[in-house]
Design goal:
heterodimer; A: Rossmann fold; 34% helix; globular; B: 12 helices; 0% strand
Chain lengths: 319, 262
């Protein structure tokens, strides 16, 4: 298998000083090991401060690791950084990272110049990419006049500008309206079909589930779960889920369900007289009988065990 | 070459915050006119007609310092504040080309500043042009402006590292009006201080400019012009080294990552 992105025992420590000038250290990555093969979308999930963004910064050569080795397409991100830079695209989110006093097109022209695109290549590529991200009518307006979603589209355009082999997408749909987010989610599989490899971080679990062929969950700077989304849900998840649709259940009865052995969490949604209970239990726990007993079999319309969603699995893993 | 000009245009328009009608007119036209006129009149009426000429020339050249160092250093700082310099550092861009492109379009503003400032003084204060060695005068202004632009690059790199262009700029302005012969003649300082003054940009250029204005021959003027040019090259080189070191340091200590996340 062709490994495109490789991290070997990568450690990254940030140092700072407190107000009393005492040295403080934060270990953002604590021996990260990662291998990503060519032509897939790899989802990197984790809570804030877990090391996702630091990983992307190291792989995009914006940050050097404190120790360990990071490689992209076989090139060391520190020793052969220039070779890496010519083959990657980085898509960030947020309001920063763009020149507000330039138009959208001028921004892209500048970044094309930084990436050694010739005048003709730049002109052609800019036209394609501006159309691809839906900024044709706004490309001659100053970026400071853009909405959040438009700026995000421009971030995406910049990342795709050089048609890179490897794309790093750090929460790419943040700020996009549902239509824009859907368009990007449609674009990503097309990019993969063209042979690109994508490392994607996102807080939207449904997005990671839909797009990623491999997922890793990172916490405290280390990978704590790795596999396909299905493997994450089945093998790594620390919960199983029981879905119950019932009628006329009292609060007292629901509290008794919470107290059943093996039950971790019960969440309730109500639609008139119908209630849906989502009961998270420890894997292997037989809970159906207990629930039927507490709620009354006559009140239960359906009761099934299902695999957790990626979000439920993720939350159970990082808790 | 095309990419060089694109980078020059983009960094000029994208990062020069005085590039709006009120900012440009006041900094490029009004300020130098008022400053030069003020000092020229001061010289004329407080001292003598020769002082009016010397002050007009000195403050005219000093005005170039204001527009070049102020504009270039703010450009560097805003590139960091806006989070855009990170995208330069992850690109395969030629760092020397990008560094040199940042001063290109500010340079003509310096010449406009000098022309308007000095020109105003000439119109309103009686300055005698009879002896001017015009080619030497123009060359000394052109080279002095380039030297100051090169110095602006070095200060810009310092400003981006310290995240503050205004404090640095203020210090530079104060120091340069005193120590480069703009108002205070170098002969007023002890020998050791005079030597330090000579390694500052503007000092040698101003000597050459005044000599050319007084009708000095090229054989006398080429020496301070050459020293000024070399001074500028040294600062340009130091600025470039600083730029490369800055990139390495922020990648090691993660300072740009903090900027992007804040």
């Amino acid at each position: 298998m062709d490994t495109v992105i490789e991290c070997l025992d990568v450690v990254r420590v940030f140092q700072s000083r407190s107000k009393l000038m005492k040295k403080q250290e934060v270990k953002a990555l604590n021996g990260l090991n990662l291998n990503i093969t060519r032509g897939i979308v790899f989802g990197l999930l984790g809570p804030n401060g877990s090391g996702k963004t630091t990983t992307i910064r190291i792989l995009s050569t914006l940050l050097t690791p404190t120790s360990g080795q990071a490689k992209v397409l076989g090139f060391d991100c520190v020793k052969a950084a220039n070779k890496v830079r010519g083959k990657i695209g980085l898509i960030l989110g947020g309001d920063r990272g763009l020149y507000g006093r330039l138009t959208g097109e001028e921004n892209l022209k500048y970044f094309a110049a930084l990436n050694h695109l010739s005048r003709d290549a730049s002109r052609k590529r800019l036209k394609e990419i501006i159309e691809m991200v839906g900024l044709t009518t706004a490309s001659d307006r100053l970026v400071e006049q853009y909405s959040r979603g438009m700026k995000q589209r421009l971030h995406i355009a910049r990342g795709l500008l050089t048609d890179p082999e490897v794309l790093f997408m750090d929460e790419p749909t943040i700020g996009l309206d549902p239509q824009g987010a859907q368009e990007l989610r449609r674009l990503i599989p097309q990019l993969v079909q063209r042979g690109k490899t994508i490392l994607l971080t996102t807080h939207y679990m449904s997005e990671a589930d839909e797009l990623s062929s491999q997922v890793a969950i990172i916490n405290h700077g280390k990978i704590i779960a790795l596999g396909t989304p299905s493997e994450i849900k089945r093998s790594f998840s620390r919960i199983a889920v029981c879905e119950v649709i019932c009628r006329n259940s009292e609060i007292k009865a629901i509290d008794e369900v919470r107290a059943l052995q093996g039950v971790q969490q019960v969440s309730v949604s109500t639609d008139g007289p119908v209630q849906r209970l989502t009961i998270q239990v420890l894997p292997g726990t037989e809970v159906k009988a207990g629930v039927k007993n507490v709620l009354g079999e006559g009140n239960i319309e359906s009761i099934i065990m299902r695999d957790p969603t990626l979000e439920e699995a993720y939350l159970s893993i990082i808790r | 070459m095309y990419n060089y000009f694109i980078q020059a245009y983009s960094t000029y328009k994208g990062l020069f915050y005085w590039l709006n009608w009120p900012g440009y007119i006041s900094n490029v036209f009004l300020r130098p006119m008022v400053m030069v006129l003020t000092y020229a009149l001061l010289g004329r009426f407080a001292l003598n007609p020769d002082a009016a000429r010397d002050y007009a020339l000195g403050v005219g050249v000093y005005s170039m310092m204001f527009i070049l160092v102020g504009a270039i250093s703010q450009s560097y700082t805003y590139d960091r504040f806006q989070g855009t310099i990170a995208f330069l550092f992850i690109s395969p861009a030629n760092r020397m080309v990008n560094y040199l492109s940042r001063m290109l379009l500010h340079y003509p503003n310096a010449l406009i500043v000098f022309a308007f400032g000095f020109g105003t003084a000439c119109l309103l204060v009686d300055i005698d042009f009879a002896l001017v060695n015009w080619w030497a005068f123009i060359i000394s202004i052109v080279i002095t402006a380039a030297s100051i632009a090169a110095f602006g690059q070095a200060i810009g790199v310092f400003a981006i590292a310290s995240r503050n262009w205004m404090n640095t700029f203020g210090l530079i302005l104060g120091a340069f009006i005193v120590f480069t012969g703009v108002i205070v003649p170098l002969s007023a300082f002890p020998p050791a201080v005079r030597e330090i003054c000579k390694i500052l940009p503007m000092t040698n250029g101003l000597i050459a400019t005044k000599m050319a204005f007084a009708g000095g021959a090229f054989s006398n003027i080429w020496s301070p012009i050459l020293r000024e040019a070399l001074t500028g090259l040294v600062y340009l080189g130091l600025g470039y080294i600083g730029f490369r070191v800055f990139e390495k340091v922020v990648k090691r200590n993660g300072a740009l990552e903090e900027d992007l996340m804040n």
